[in-house]
Amino acid sequence: MHLVDGTFELFRCFHGAPRARNEAGHEVGAVRGLLATLVSLLHEPGVSHIAVAFDSVVAPPRSPGRVGNEELIASQTALAADAVRALGVVLWPSGRYQADEIIATGAAKFATDPNVEQVVICSTDNDFNQCVRGQRIVVLDRIRKVVTDEAAVRARYGVAPTQLPDLFGLIGDRSDGLPSVPGWGLKSAAALLQRYGTLAAIPADETQWDVDVRGASRLAAALRERRLEAQLCRELAELRTDLPLPHTLADLEWHGANRAEVERLCALIGDDAVLARVGRWAT
Questions:
Q1: Which of 130, 141, 149, 189 could be a cystine partner for 170, CB 3.0 to 4.6 Å?
Q2: Whole-angstrom distance, CA of residue 153 vs CA of residue 135
Q3: CATH number listed for the domain at residues 2-155+243-277
Q4: CA dihedral sign, ordered 259, 10, 251, 93
Q5: Angle (CA) 279 281 111, round 5°
Q6: At the topology level of CATH, where does 158-237 sit?
Q7: For the whole model, what pTM was predicted?
Q8: C-alpha distances in angstroms, 247 versus 42, 91, 102, 105, 167?
Q9: Average pLDDT over residues 220-232
Q10: Quick check: 91 and 51 in contact, CB under 8 A?
Q11: What distance in Å separates the CA atoms of residue 170 and residue 202, rounded to the nearest whole number?
């Protein structure tokens, strides 16, 4: 099963694919790229069940006489969703939730299904590393063709995937705007989490630590001062896996694209090159 971070793919295509406008003068280059990259994914071996999740992209207020990248991307999100539907792929809109939490929920849900061999999360967002479970749930960077399994997570961070929210509660995460506890780094945080399991279980008094950590008294003092803030950051870093997701495994099986809808979409974006590459059409 492949769960695709559609928001990332749209941004990637916006910045990586050539800009293009349709006959109405609307920017459609990112949608062209998205359509092409999804068709490529559908042709890869083992791709049988698939869903694409999107965040709601809201453009900032427009400056007079200027159209920014955010606005150009936001203007293509509805058409991007139509592209996913036209390909016969399940669409997961985010609404009041975040796309990464919908994907995390889907991964947790379908990884327990004995008929699912593996769940592959297609994204470069490091937040998804906490979803990894052995080789049952992995993260695929389609750009670099790199697969991150549990062994890779442990090698990079020094902790299990499930401990990553606790780790980021201590060392922060710039990409999500989470501050670190002063003085705490990856090595010290990983050592204490390996011993105590969670941030909450780390003793407040460093004299009770039975693991050798450099600058223990300074680290403990900083954690005592910022413990509640660190715990909040830990909760904010953790992806929810309990969202209401009604789809079954059968719902996510790809049976082919809708020819009429793909043709309509190609006419809207002024590019029908993908028609010859779809390969499978729904009957």
A1: 189
A2: 11
A3: 3.40.50.1010
A4: negative
A5: 85
A6: DNA polymerase; domain 1 (1.10.150)
A7: 0.91
A8: 19, 10, 12, 11, 32
A9: 97
A10: yes
A11: 11
